[in-house]
Amino acid sequence: MAGKRVGLALATEAILLVLVTSESFKVEITPGPRIAAQIGNVTVLTCIATGCAAPSFSWRTQIDSPLGGEVEPGAKKSILTMNPVDFKNEHSYLCTAFCENKKMERAVQVELYSFPQDPVITMSDFLEVGKPATITCQVPQVYPSERLKIELLKDGHIIESKEFFMDEEKKSLETKSLEVTITPTILDIGQSITCLAELPIDDMEFLPKLRKTTQKLPINTAPKNTVVSITPSNVVQAGDYVKMTCSSEGLPAPEISWSKKRRDGNLEILSHNATLILNAAMTTDSGLYVCEGTNRVGKDKKEVELIVQDESFKAEILERPKITAQIGNLTVLTCSVTGCPNPSFSWRTQTDSPLEGKVKNEDTRSTLTMSPVGFKNEHSYLCTAFCGTRKMESDIQVELYSFPHDPVITMSDFLEVGKPATITCQVPQVYPSERLKIELLKDGYSIESKEFFMDEEKKSLETKSLEVTITPTTLDIGQSISCQAELPIDDMEFLPKLRLTTRRLNIGIAPRNTVISGAPTTTVQEGDYVTVSCSSEGLPAPEISWSKRLDNGDLEFLSQNATLTFNATVTENSGIYVCEGSNQAGKERKEVELIVQVPPKDTVLVAFPSNSVKEGDTVTISCTSVGVSPSQIVLRKKADPGEQVLESRNGHYTIHAARLEDAGIYECESKTEVGRQLRSLNLDVKGRENHIDYFSPELVALYCVASLIIPSVGMIIFLVRKANVKGSYSLVDALKSKV
Questions:
Q1: pLDDT tens per residue across span 330-351
Q2: How far is residue 723's CA from residue 502's CA, in Å, rounded to a whole number?
Q3: Is 323 inside a domain boundary?
Q4: Which of 201, 145, 146 is nearest to 175 (CA)?
Q5: 524 is a domain residue
Q6: 605 and 673 both lie in a single domain
Q7: CB 124 within 8 A of CB 297
Q8: 98-129 pLDDT per residue, tens
Q9: What is the rounded CA–CA span in Å between residue 641 and residue 643?
Q10: CATH of the domain at 548
């Protein structure tokens, strides 16, 4: 007992010593126990031991992979530096500290991520109002990229977002992007585009998890609304002071330049100022002056004619300085002279091309008639008038256009709600087609428009079109589609410049909400009167037809009325009736089952092969009834007490190996909702007869033994009797006497 106490004391002392030692010797890793390290950065893990004068350290990964870093020893700590952090460093690291014969371990999980840069927004250096532009937000060197989310915002409102959680997980730095196409409007001027990139990994501690880049939209507008003013007027006398001023709207502000159109049609640059001044105008200053506003997006021109008059001999073309002629029409140019009673005339083109017209001189006038006008007539024409030795010239520019027909709208004669439909607007024989603008409107609101200014300039009559696909809704019923074609050439005077065609949308709705009702009901008794009615909604109103489904699944057409009438139903009227509502948009079917019930009749209950059978025989009890399905037949056996319902199949119940207890009264009940019939029969089961087996094996054996014993006994009796006569018996003698 004393020895046990001593041992217990020593053990207790040892445990206390271990506890004291373990409490004093400790190891910690900073930072820990988990650290999120950005790929490419420097990460330092420090293992610190306390409670030990001279600890030693070792580092390893939990899966014994290379450390991927450099270890720097210290007095009471060990530093593991990973520079730069890479995928090879995504491990659980274990620091082991030794103090004499004691060892302690601490682990830290290094988890990697990469989110080093703000998003990069890429777009054109300038955007133009009304022209689509692509903006791309790119987030480089992301890991794990499948956790990334990108949003594009315009003026603080989200216009597109994307998450990459469906992407394949890759152990690599990925560059992800989001692209959106916008069509800038005037309202977008001065607004900003912002890209938000987020790496929302809740179980990893790092910052930032959200990065943002904002950039101003560099929106520009082409010059427009170019305006010219002339002081005092565009018709002055020789020697007058003339001031011409020009302005044009645009972003950036357009640069203004002045030119004068020469006889050959080319422009002569006069000034790059907004104002052009003629201190003393001369007749040679007469002509077409062109002001042009230009910026990086485009340009806009405005022409003005200056006429400097001389009170002496004059010749002028009445329609000058230019005339707009529609291709295919007739055009007449008239040159008139004042200050000369008998002038002579000549006509020519500025490029010396053929006149392609007829000249007629009469008194102080000369006319040039072109019929029909074609591309050969698009020239600057010069009329020269001679009065003695004096000569005067007047020129006119013939500009051509073609805009002869209203637009033609092409679409299906019938549109269906919910189904896409294509509508085409075609504008035929247009020139110049690159100036054409087509707009499609639905109920007065624009749904699509197209300008052809980017098309190649062609000296030919072109047919242009605009196509749009719409999906009609019920709100579109009764509305119209309009095609508006415009040839907005400001410096050409002709009418009309706007043509419009309108067509009503012929929209239909496929049959739906088809409903069938039976009066008084669809389950009736034979002989009852019943009507089955069908209705269906649609546009145009659906046509109703009735059919009956045959046993083979085919449909037998019955009627195109909405109501089927049965004056006195018979069982043959039972079945599935199909109502179909149909119109141009489609069709819909509904089915109803008409059940004509009759009371059971001619119920027959029989036992096969007979009502009387022997024990062990097979007997089938069958029940049939006219007008009753097998599921409406119930077979029972009268029992004591009560009765037993039999598990019959299609009205048949089979007894295999009949027994005496199967004998008794069997009852069949056929029933419907309108009546029932009972039939019964008495099944007699007879037992087998008892027979004696006279030829059993034991009896045969007994018989054989008896057949041997009886002769032997007889012989012995014979010999005994003979011996009694002679006084002795000798078998030899007995036998001799036989011999």
A1: 999 999 988 787 889 999 998 8
A2: 158
A3: yes
A4: 145
A5: yes
A6: yes
A7: no
A8: 998 899 999 999 999 999 999 999 998 888 88
A9: 7
A10: 2.60.40.10
